[in-house]
Amino acid sequence: MSTNIETLRQLAHLARLEFDETKEQEMLHDLNNILNWVDQLRQLDTQNVEPLIHISEELNVMREDAAQNTVRHEDALRLAPRKDSDYFRVPKVLE
């Protein structure tokens, strides 16, 4: 299976790509290599091959979701760039 330069130009137009002549020939060569590789895959006998649903048979192991304070409020306020009493000062985001 091979692709000609006109097909490549049509694909480039649809993908909004622009190539100079050197890159165009390079892309044509690469595209034909990819299509040949896919054609080789298409010729493989996959009758007795089960479909792959997951890459790995391992299951997700979830930890218990437990809230915990890792930084004390006073320490966080001490490191804040702006604060007001016991609160953080932040720029207004709504008008």
TrEMBL record:
One of its GO terms (biological process) is glutaminyl-tRNAGln biosynthesis via transamidation. The keyword Magnesium does not apply. HAMAP family: GatC (MF_00122). This is Aspartyl/glutamyl-tRNA(Asn/Gln) amidotransferase subunit C. Keywords: ATP-binding, Ligase, Nucleotide-binding, Protein biosynthesis, Transferase. NCBIfam families: gatC (TIGR00135). Belongs to the GatC family.
